[in-house]
Amino acid sequence: MNNKEEEQQKPSIYSLQLHELKEWLTANGEKAFRAEQIFDWLYKKRADSFEEMSNLSKGMRQKLDENFKLTTLTTAIQQTSADGTIKFLFELHDGYSIETVLMRHEYGNSVCVTTQVGCRIGCTFCASTLGGLKRHLEAGEIVAQVVKVQKALDETDERVSSVVIMGIGEPFDNYDNMLSFLKIINHDEGLNIGARHITVSTSGIIPKIYQFADENMQINFAISLHAPNTELRSRLMPINKAYKLDDLMKAVRYYIDKTGRRISFEYGLFGKVNDQIEHAEELANLLKGLKCHVNLIPVNYVPERDYVRTPKDQIFAFEKALKNRGINVTIRREQGHDIDAACGQLRAKARKEELKS
After folding, report:
1. CA 40 to CA 45: how far, in whole Å?
2. Mean pLDDT across the stretch 282-311?
3. What residue numbers does the annotated binding site for S-adenosyl-L-methionine cover?
4. CA-to-CA distance for 116 and 135, rounded, in angstroms?
5. What's the maximum distance between 2 C-alpha atoms anywhere in the chain?
6. Are 195 and 259 in contact (CB under 8 A)?
7. What pLDDT shows up at residue 179?
8. Per the residue annotation, which of 141, 189, 319, 343 is the catalytic one?
9. 99 an active-site residue?
10. How many whole angstroms separate alpha carbon 333 and alpha carbon 106?
11. pLDDT-derived band of residue 126, with 50, 70 and 90 as boundaries?
12. For labelling, which of 214, 296, 333, 346 has a CA lying 20 to 30 Å from the CA of 21?
């Protein structure tokens, strides 16, 4: 094994939660309090190497370097929209690529992160699933996306104020790494992003929804729904064949009862597929009585897919039909429409060889 391969085999220092780093330090003859110093270098000073950590002994810096890699992402492509949205295509150590998006809002800067290289869920409207799943990202590779964007914002004295886990991949298919990521970025010694400024979305892996409810975190939670009945949802999202809509709604009710928190439903509008008034009425009946919010998403056109955009007047009519039936609903503001905005679209265009099965 050459030096480069050895480096790739090391775990990422960004994958360790604070208590895990303390345990490692103690087991390796170091003082546990050094973990706070290392976290300070990683997340406050945003060091690019262990060598920069000048208040650690040379021997300790060497020990860290021998046992961990300080995950770096190479920016392969960076697209900037007229509205300030920035889409990054990052290259990983093994040559695979992932997407991360910085979205600018009136209330701050939000980063949308990726949890997998590709996706196995197979949603028929999504570019992320083209070519299937290549591998899971380790927690440190997800953390590194936020650190990388924060370093870019450092140049203008801005900060990442919120994070959404809605990029390439199904977060609950990579549950343990996703959960570590959440705890690292939320920790006040880490990136210190408040739990209520973090949103995780799933396509509906039901056992993990129950597990996530039992974690009792204050993280915002969203379900990619996209259809008001099980037949249509199975057409759009094959996962519905394994995890039926009725069972998904039972899991949703468990989550709400367990946490007391509102849940969001992501509903992409596809022209003449799921965007008619009768679909809105059916959706309202499905969600009646739930502590929830519906986020209507005018879909971005993906060349590899056949779906078309819903006309604006139909979007507003759909929204009105839900509101008239007592459903809390908003239309997601479009961002990055002049760049490869759809999830997985930039990777699909730039890295066609990655998408071969």
Report:
1. 6
2. 88
3. 169-170, 201, 224-226, 300
4. 6
5. 68
6. no
7. 98
8. 343
9. yes
10. 12
11. confident
12. 214
Say if residues 128 and 134 touch (Cβ distance below 8 Å): no
Task: Tell me the binding residues.
Answer: 119, 123, 126, 169-170, 201, 224-226, 300
Domains in the chain, CATH or no CATH each: 17-67 (1.10.150.530), 81-352 (3.20.20.70)
- The percent of residues in the chain predicted with pLDDT above 90, rounded, is 82
- pLDDT tens per residue, range 32-87: 999 999 999 999 999 999 999 999 999 999 999 999 999 989 999 999 988 889 99
Whole-angstrom distance, CA of residue 177 vs CA of residue 184: 11
Q: Output the pTM of the full model.
A: 0.93
Q: Could you read off the pLDDT of 236-250 as tens digits, one per residue?
A: 999 999 999 999 999
pLDDT tens track for 41-52:
999 999 999 999
**Residues marked as binding for [4Fe-4S] cluster?**
119, 123, 126
User: What's the DSSP call for residue 332?
Assistant: P
**DSSP at 42:** I
CB 111 within 8 A of CB 145: yes
Find out whether 210 and 251 touch, Cβ atoms under 8 Å.
Answer: yes
Q: How many CB atoms lie within 10 A of CB 342?
A: 21
What's the distance, Cα to Cα, between the start and end of the chain in Å?
A: 28
Residue 52 annotated to the active site: no
Contact 296, 329 (CB under 8 A): yes
